[in-house]
Write a structure and sequence with these properties.
9-stranded mixed sheet; two-stranded antiparallel ribbon
Length: 279
Amino acid sequence: MKAPVNHIIDSSFIDGPGNRTVIFFQGCNFNCKYCHNPETINLCINCGQCVPGCPVGALEIVDGKVEWDDMKCVDCGACYRNCPYSATPSVKESTVEEVIERVKGNMPFIRGITVSGGECSLQRDFIVELFRQAKSLGLGTLMDSNGGLPIAFDEELMAVTDGVMLDIKGSDPFFHLELTGRSNDMVLNNAVELARQGKLTEIRTVVLSNNPFSRQTVVNTGNILEPYLKDNKVTYRLIKFRPIGVRGEAEHWTMPGQEQMEELKKLVSDKGFFKVIIT
C-alpha cells in the first residue's frame, strides 16, 4: 500500500499536543481561494513546465516523467511556483512501512503523529494502517482535516484516531461553496459527530478581513458545538488570513486587524471551548 507524501516534518509543536511527527499527503478535495499551500492540491501531470525553472538542476524529464532529485533540491519553491496545475514534482509514493521507519527515527522524542495535507482523509486506508502501527509503538494519532469526507462516521478509522483538528471554513453554504468549491454539509456533520464522540480536539477558522461571513462562521460554530463542549476540551483557533503563498484574487486580500480578531474571540468565549486562540 502506497500514498503520495508531500513531505514529513520530524518535530512539530503546533500540530497537536506535545512534540509530533507530521505527515503531509499530496492531494485535496477542496480548492480554497486562500489556500496557503496550493501546490498540495493536485498530483503532478508530468507536463515538464517546472523543469527549466529549477535553479539547481534538481528536476529532469526521464521516460516522460518529471524526476526530482532531493539531494540537489534546495527547497526554493521555484518548481511549484512555475506549476500551472497546483502541484509539485517533489512528491514520493511511500509505503506505510517507510513512513513508520521515519517515525521510529524520531522516538522517543515525540508524543505522537499527525496526518495532514492537502487532505489526509483521501488516503483513508493508508492512514488506518499507519495509525494501527503507530499506536502499537505507543504513539498518539491525530488527523488535521477539512472534513469533506465522512471521517467521523467511519468506525474503523475512528477506532485508531485519538482526535481530529477540523477546519470550518464557512458556515453559510453559499459562502463555503464560493470559497472552496465544495459543500459544507459533511463538514458540519463531522464537527457535531466528532464532538459527540469526544474526538474533536480543535476547530480552525481562517478569518477574512471585515468579511461578514467570517463573523457568521465563528458565531454559528460556537452555537453548533456548545451542547458538546461541557465534557470535551476543544480548542477554537481563529487564524488571521495572510497573503502568503496564495494565488489569484487572494493575493490582493488584506490581513484582518487584531481588533476584529479580538471581537470574534469574545463572541465565542462563553460557549465552553477549552481555549480560544488567535494566530
